[in-house]
Write a structure and sequence with these properties.
The protein is mostly helical. It has a domain at 23-76. The protein has helices spanning 3-21, 24-49, 55-76. The longest helix has 26 residues, at 24-49. The radius of gyration is 17 Å and the shape is extended.
């Protein structure tokens, strides 16, 4: 295994150990934080692709994309 792969594996193990020590409430809050972080990354991507968008248009596009994801998830459910 190369140095980067070893480091990534060590980081993953540490994250797993940290998650095991979390209370259910801490896990719930961590999930919400991860979702918000993902939304921020998406907003940045939307702005990069559409530099003329207003903040409102960026939010509308984000909601549109999240709606697509919801519909795809619904199709996967049995």
């Amino acid at each position: 295994m190369d140095d980067i792969a070893e480091l990534a594996a060590a980081i993953d193990r540490e994250k797993l150990e940290r998650a095991k020590r979390m209370t259910p409430q801490e896990r719930f809050l961590a999930g919400a934080e991860l979702f918000e972080d993902a939304c921020e990354v998406s907003r940045a991507g939307i702005r990069a692709l559409n530099p003329g968008f207003t903040d409102t248009e960026v939010e509308e596009e984000l909601r549109r994309r999240l709606g697509i994801a919801d519909r795809l998830d619904e199709k996967r459910e049995p």
